DNA sequence: TGTGAAAAGATTAACAG
DNA sequence: CTGTTAATCTTTTCACA
């Protein structure tokens, strides 16, 4: 069954698990259990429950874009001329499926979308904007900014004090 | 040794590994090998090499922010008044260490930083901006936009045709 | 719920082609 | 560089407190 994420109540063991795994995602279940002073089976059980309750939604592989021939990253801010649901959904679906797009933010406010993309070089970036973004008639305006550096913050790791 | 990421040359087996793992990061080495028609040891060897060469930089856990009590996400666009290296580095370090910050983009162009944050509610968002962003004297202006939805794109997965 | 021990499964290392 | 085997380690399962 697909549980409602928001209904899950997390106790302090769950929070410690998430905190450890957030800091060190490559821990095995065994190592995690020993850090937390739990039996392996207990730890595995909690982990599975966190997944089934939708708290842990998955894992991801971090890949170095440069190594793959995409040394240039950019944020493309997109503003629309029309906001009909149909157009917006279609555009979002298309953008999300476009190779090179790492993340696509759908926003409220001045910019309608932020696209985080990785490309080969400046020319590819120009082509990307022209061929994949402004080609959609619903797009009124774009503004492209280079990404100098991208860092991960602490994110939503549970505060230990709660 | 820390290898130079850009010097790694990827053959078609490496690319297939990355493509499979990008699509399905939870595959075990064994399952991956069988999908690609490789021996497990070969696949494991390739994987380790990809890590040592800095192509695969790590793994990450995806956690549902709502379940942890942060149902609201926003992008805070930050513009600076001064761009001295010292000030910029200090600010970036501080922001990257601030709880609630998921990612911090350092950009070239109109906005100097984009902060992707998760917070409890609108009031917490206001407090975040005031207490953690505009509190820095080097920040001249901020603009906050709500995140309606965030999707992952295909990213930099190797194209099979290369 | 949580635990410990046995069974099943996955990874690693050594070696051969 | 690839594949096979065997040893090691991890995860899963289950009876029981």
From TrEMBL, chains A, B:
<dbReference type="InterPro" id="IPR011991">
    <property type="entry name" value="ArsR-like_HTH"/>
</dbReference>
<dbReference type="InterPro" id="IPR036388">
    <property type="entry name" value="WH-like_DNA-bd_sf"/>
</dbReference>
<keyword id="KW-0238">DNA-binding</keyword>
<dbReference type="GO" id="GO:0005829">
    <property type="term" value="C:cytosol"/>
</dbReference>
<protein>
    <submittedName>
        <fullName>DNA-binding Lrp family transcriptional regulator</fullName>
    </submittedName>
</protein>
<dbReference type="Pfam" id="PF01037">
    <property type="entry name" value="AsnC_trans_reg"/>
</dbReference>
<dbReference type="Pfam" id="PF13412">
    <property type="entry name" value="HTH_24"/>
</dbReference>
<dbReference type="InterPro" id="IPR036390">
    <property type="entry name" value="WH_DNA-bd_sf"/>
</dbReference>
<dbReference type="GO" id="GO:0043565">
    <property type="term" value="F:sequence-specific DNA binding"/>
</dbReference>
<dbReference type="GO" id="GO:0043200">
    <property type="term" value="P:response to amino acid"/>
</dbReference>
<keyword id="KW-0804">Transcription</keyword>
<dbReference type="InterPro" id="IPR019888">
    <property type="entry name" value="Tscrpt_reg_AsnC-like"/>
</dbReference>
<keyword id="KW-0805">Transcription regulation</keyword>
<feature type="domain" description="HTH asnC-type">
    <location>
        <begin position="10"/>
        <end position="71"/>
    </location>
</feature>
<dbReference type="InterPro" id="IPR011008">
    <property type="entry name" value="Dimeric_a/b-barrel"/>
</dbReference>
<dbReference type="InterPro" id="IPR019887">
    <property type="entry name" value="Tscrpt_reg_AsnC/Lrp_C"/>
</dbReference>
<dbReference type="InterPro" id="IPR000485">
    <property type="entry name" value="AsnC-type_HTH_dom"/>
</dbReference>
